Amino acid sequence: MKLKFLIILIFPAFFFSCMAPPQGYVYLQDLDKSRKEIRAVVDSIKYEPIIKKYDELLITVTAPVLDQESVAQFNLPMTAYLTPGETGAINVQQSPAIQTYIVDHEGVINYPVIGRIPLVGLTKSQAIERIRESVANHIKYPVVNMKIMSFKVTVLGEVTKPGTIPVNQEKISILDAIGAANDLTIYGDRKNVLLIRENDNGSFDYVRFDLTSSDLFTSPYYYLQQNDKIIVEPNKTRQLDSKYGAADGYKLSIFSMVFSALSIIASTSVAIISIGKGTK
Q1: Exposure pattern of 125-162 as b/e (b: 16+ CB <10 Å)?
Q2: Please, which residues have CB within 8 angstroms of residue 187's CB and are 6 or more apart in sequence?
Q3: Are strands 229-234 and 152-157 parallel, antiparallel or unpaired?
Q4: Hey, which residues does 186 pair with through a beta bridge?
Q5: pLDDT (tens digit, 9 = 90+) per residue, 67-80?
Q6: Which range has the top average pLDDT, 96-100, 135-139, 153-157, 271-275?
Q7: How confident is the model at residue 36, as a pLDDT?
Q8: Which of 107, 142, 179, 274 is the most exposed place for a label (fewest CB within 10 A)?
């Protein structure tokens, strides 16, 4: 009677354990153990985008002065494009385009009235302050606003929707980027995700992430910079598919699953027989 009762308890547990997702597919597996330490580190990280070469910047200046013409000279005018009409007439585009500044290869922008202002390597707030100080020599109490229009990151490899992701809010983490790519495929290696970052001096940073570990949150590369590249490499199953062909790789995967299941069944059976002998 006891043996039958043990079998009733063990086999449902075995069945549901087989249904559990493999550990290699679960994100942040140790999060509960190190939540307090992570919170302290994350709170100490102050993220802010850094101006890079070839960034496209939208910069506007306002000031509480009566003479708005003096303020207008520090803002680029709106432009409208001329397009040919069906009858040969020239039509003006109804929605004027906003002009922007491009940080050139030397890291500077050409600003109205002021001239060349070096911005590369500065944080966004530092760049705003540098422009504000320059404009303050001409008008009182200027307010400068800036937006990085060209902020984007690229996600490639074993994700559902690879491609380039525009970032309107100028802040994106590696998890946000993977989410925007509709998550990794089942063939993505969650323990070996590569980040490539190009620096202004021409060098590259190569950083690897383990998405199953909560150490991800403590990395200084957790928040991405503009033009970062994320590459999700294939796991061993996908590599087998590539090496032996999809059909052979699938057979190997099935064989591995069946072998693991038989091993568990054999171990469970031995345990049941041992318990049964012990109850006699």
Answers
A1: eebbebbeebbeeebeebebebebbbbbbbbebbbeeb
A2: 158, 234, 235, 237, 238, 241
A3: parallel
A4: none
A5: 788 899 999 887 76
A6: 153-157
A7: 58
A8: 274
Which is nearest to 159 in space by CA: 211, 214, 216? 211
Higher pLDDT, 60 or 25: 60
Q: Which residue has the tokens 């079998």?
A: 7
CB contact at 8 A, 200 and 225: no
> What whole-number distance in Å separates Cα of residue 86 and Cα of residue 231?
47
Per-residue pLDDT band at 89 (split at 50, 70, 90): low
- Run of H or E including 91: strand 90-92
* Residue that the structure tokens 């590569």 belong to: 194
